[in-house]
TrEMBL record:
Keywords: Receptor, Signal. The lineage of its organism: Bacteria, Pseudomonadati, Pseudomonadota, Gammaproteobacteria, Oceanospirillales. It comes from Aidingimonas halophila. Belongs to the UPF0065 (bug) family. The keyword Transmembrane does not apply. This is Tripartite-type tricarboxylate transporter, receptor component TctC.
């Protein structure tokens, strides 16, 4: 009898342990990734390129559904992400500085504390592009041109409050020159305006200029990174040219605040393995994606620094009327 009892207890214990392992396994169902921009755009393409590699590195037969929630410069999607149930089954592809600048320039239903950082994936440094026949080809000659010009230097960006806009404001303040902002709907429109002579300067991301620089249509004056991106190794940084401007477009992953620790750990590990996959690296290079992986802790610290810097810029020079 005692032997039978011991066997029964052992069997029950094994069953309970197995049941516990199954209950704790993550994920047990599909996961939604919110993208705050339209399908087919640069952010969406980058997200959909990454997703299969994250899936491969998650336990079981995990699937991730990309859910596009565009509108209001990203605010619609960011709000949806912030208000999602923090159960481990919704996270998002977030863009910076938009995630941070929107709550600074207007009232929103979220702020930085609404999110749990997971990882930073891409840092696409800002840059200045000029037409090939412009009177300036670096930042020093741009400043000289601005000082001699009868009116302000005109520059185009992808919108008010974008990384391109904020970084150009920071540069103009440091250089003490007058510049007039002309916003466009997208990078392609900015390039077209530059090449037609409608604007003096294009403030955009370096990745959006390299192909046109290679063809000789555009000259890149500098990149706003601490180190030169491998995709543009001949383009000096702003710091190398005497201007302390480091800003660009980050594309990372974040979840609603309160995201479960086990889910965060699992996702973070899967993402780290995904971005080191040779096939993903090849696809990223094809898309001119400047990869700059950071784990959740590093990304969180970067978000805090960026938020402080953008708030300081707003207090010194608001970019929209309150």
């Amino acid at each position: 009898m005692k032997l039978k009892t011991k066997i029964l207890y052992a069997a029950l214990g094994s069953t309970m342990l197995a049941g516990s392992a199954v209950a704790e396994e993550y994920p047990t169902r599909s996961i939604d990734m919110i993208v705050a921009y339209s399908a087919g755009g640069g952010t969406d393409v980058a997200a959909r390129t990454l997703v299969p590699f994250i899936e491969e590195n998650l336990p079981g037969d995990a699937t991730i559904n990309v859910v596009n929630r565009p509108g209001a410069g990203g605010e619609v999607g960011f709000t949806a992400l912030a208000n999602a149930e923090p159960d481990g089954y919704t996270f998002g592809f977030v863009n910076l500085p938009n995630l941070l600048s929107i709550p600074i320039q207007r009232d929103t239903d979220y702020d930085l504390s609404s999110f749990q950082p997971i990882a930073d994936i891409v840092y696409d440094p800002g840059g200045f592009g000029a037409s090939a026949d412009a009177e300036f080809d670096d930042l020093e000659s741009l400043v000289e041109y601005a000082e001699d010009k009868s009116g302000p230097v005109t520059y185009g960006t992808t919108g008010i409050g974008s990384d391109d806009h904020l970084s150009t404001l920071a540069f103009a303040r440091q250089a003490d020159i007058e510049m007039r902002h002309i916003p466009f709907d997208g990078a392609a429109d900015v390039r077209a305006a530059l090449m037609s002579g409608e604007i003096d300067l294009a403030g955009t991301n370096v990745s959006e200029l390299v192909d046109y620089a290679d063809s000789g249509d555009i000259a890149i004056l500098g990149q706003m990174a601490e180190e030169r991106w491998d995709g543009a190794p001949d383009v000096p940084t702003f710091q190398e040219q005497g201007f302390d401007v480091v800003m660009g477009s980050d594309r990372g992953l974040a979840a609603p605040a309160g995201f479960p620790e086990d889910a965060l750990s699992t996702l973070e590990k899967a993402v780290e393995e995904a971005v080191s996959d040779p096939e993903f690296l090849e696809k990223a290079e094809e898309q001119n994606l400047p990869l700059s992986y950071m784990d959740s802790e590093e990304f969180g610290e970067k978000l805090e620094r960026m938020n402080e810097n953008i708030q300081e810029l707003w207090e010194e020079q608001p970019w929209v009327e309150e």
